[in-house]
Specification:
alpha+beta, Arc Repressor Mutant, subunit A, four-stranded antiparallel sheet
């Protein structure tokens, strides 16, 4: 199973919980708790749980322009 983020020409669209933890510096447990408390939106696709980039940004309170192709939040 691939661990790559789903991307488009505009940048990252979704992250796994593990990828989101690495990118944000938050623990996977923190992200799982936020998903369980419905503070962070996630979608199950097959056996994977994907967090939309937009949802991750909203959870972190990061707004403004998207940074293209850099993986930065």
């Amino acid at each position: 199973m691939s661990s790559k983020s789903v991307t488009s020409s505009e940048g990252i669209l979704t992250n796994t919980v593990k990828q989101a933890a690495v990118r944000t510096g938050l623990s996977e447990r923190t992200l799982w708790d936020a998903i369980a408390k419905k503070k962070l939106r996630a979608t199950r696709v097959g056996g994977r749980v994907l967090i939309p980039e937009e949802s991750l940004r909203k959870f972190l309170g990061v707004g403004g322009e998207r940074r293209k192709r850099t993986g930065e939040l």
